[in-house]
Design a protein that fits this description.
404 residues, alpha/beta, Spo0b-associated Gtp-binding Protein, Chain: A, Rossmann fold, 2 domains, 6-stranded mixed sheet, 5-stranded mixed sheet, rod-shaped, disordered N terminus, binds guanosine-5'-triphosphate, binds magnesium ion, mitochondrion, OBG_GTPase
């Protein structure tokens, strides 16, 4: 309650006789605010003067900065390590002048290996060229050179490895590995060529050069559900409402510049991952807007959540456009199991358009409001249904993803 003495006598007289009056919200002060000046004046508390000790929190990056750190494709030159050369020498010691050939073999060069790692979120940490460790040369006294160890490149889950037009690997599970470049074999020392008819070979062979390849790494976000919608439809707001992900929300188009994945938790530790990808505009398949770069993130999702803004004049046209763009990008993409989320039903204009869209779509439509949380339970239930159907289909196909 606000103490009466806070208002001046002039205010009090002006307000008398007006009837019931409630103070405007900006005049309402919280008790902590009222006490603050007194505490400062008296300065009796050491604690108030002490520097506030807050636990260090991770600095939140703006969406623009995140975009800079988020790299979803990379061209990489990988080269395996060269094999070490074989040695050519002869053993000799007092009283054993001709001890025979004793040149050791060279060590093998190290492979360059791509490994899927859950900790890595984008390809920004991947460099443009990698060289595997070389093998050591062989040496005297039959000593073989040390092998070059493997060089691991950590990549995010859902990385596709392409060479030219061909996809050579798909690293979608933690720990998946792909040998990007083989190390060269080590050369042979002259000891290797010792034979009955040749007791003193001088021949030794050089190590093989490592394999060299140019690979294209492409990241496709791996999530169960993908949110597809025009900019400002409320995709990020929805993801915030149903998961603990915190994508930026603002009233201008293209607020989201990189995909965000949120995890929706259900009872029994069941989890469904949902990806919020940047908004899609008409002509996205021709690379308009941020389109093409992010349509590939949708390609990987098992089922889709079309988000339409019910407050715009013709929401069904938005849905048609979205499906058209997906279909143009990849045939059959819009046919995947999906549900249409009619967002912003808290607005009167949206409520007015709801019956018409409901008549067109029937059960596929889930009207809701990310802002007020209205009908979010229906979305969570449908999401679980879609997920369960997907898991069943996967099991029926012997753990193979169903063909769309
Ligand atoms: N009234 C109302 N406003 C909403 C609702 N959901 C989102 N908004 C508003 O719509 C605007 C856009 O929301 P976002 O969540 O950023 O939309 P988006 O689809 O992620 O947009 P992009 O990232 O640009 O593709 C914001 O101003 C939100 O506050 C809703 O249910 N009701
Ligand atoms: Mg967004």
């Amino acid at each position: 309650m606000v103490p009466a003495r806070l208002f001046s006598a002039r205010w009090q007289t002006a307000l008398e006789g007006v009837g019931r009056w409630t103070p405007p919200t900006r005049l309402v002060l919280r008790p902590s605010q009222l006490l603050q000046p007194t505490a400062k004046l008296l300065s009796v508390s050491c604690a108030s003067c002490a520097k506030r000790q807050e636990s260090p929190r991770k600095k939140l990056l703006s969406e623009k900065k995140l975009k800079r750190y988020f790299v979803d494709h990379r061209r990489v030159l990988v080269r395996g390590g060269d094999g070490g050369h074989g040695a050519s020498c002869f053993h000799s010691e007092p009283r054993k002048e001709f001890g025979g050939p004793s040149g050791g073999d060279g060590g093998g060069g190290g492979h360059v290996i791509l490994r899927a790692d859950r900790q890595v979120k984008s390809l920004s940490s991947v460099l443009t060229r990698y060289q595997g460790p070389h093998g050591e040369d062989g040496s005297r006294k039959n000593c073989c050179g040390r092998n070059g160890g493997p060089l691991y490149i950590r990549v995010p889950l859902g990385t596709l490895v392409k060479e030219g037009e061909d996809t050579v690997a798909d690293l979608s599970h933690p720990g998946d590995e792909y040998i990007a470049a083989l190390g060269g074999a080590g050369g042979k020392g002259n000891r290797f060529f010792l034979a009955n008819d040749n007791r003193a070979p001088v021949t030794c062979t050089p190590g093989q050069p490592g394999q060299e390849r140019v690979l294209f790494l492409e990241l496709k976000t791996v999530a169960d559900a993908g949110m597809v919608g025009f900019p400002n439809a409320g995709k990020s707001s929805l993801l915030r409402a149903i998961s603990r992900a915190t994508p930026a929300v603002a009233a201008y188009p293209f607020t989201t510049l990189k995909p965000h994945v949120g995890v929706v938790q259900y009872e029994g530790h069941q989890q469904v991952t949902v990806a919020d990808v940047p908004g899609i505009v008409r002509g996205a398949h021709q690379n308009r807007g941020l389109g093409l770069a992010f349509l590939r993130h949708i390609q990987r999702c098992s089922f889709l959540l079309f988000v339409v803004d019910l407050s715009v004049p013709e929401p069904w046209a938005q849905l048609q456009d979205l499906k058209y763009e997906l279909e143009k990008y990849e045939e059959g993409l819009s046919e995947r199991p999906h549900v249409v989320l009619g967002n912003k039903i808290d607005l009167p204009a949206a409520r007015a358009r709801l019956p018409e869209l409901q008549a067109r779509l029937g059960r596929t439509l889930v009207p809701l409001s990310a802002a007020t949380g209205e009908n979010l339970e229906a979305l969570l239930l449908r999401l679980k249904e879609l997920h369960d159907d997907h898991v069943e289909a996967k099991q029926a196909h012997g753990h193979q993803p169903p063909s769309w």
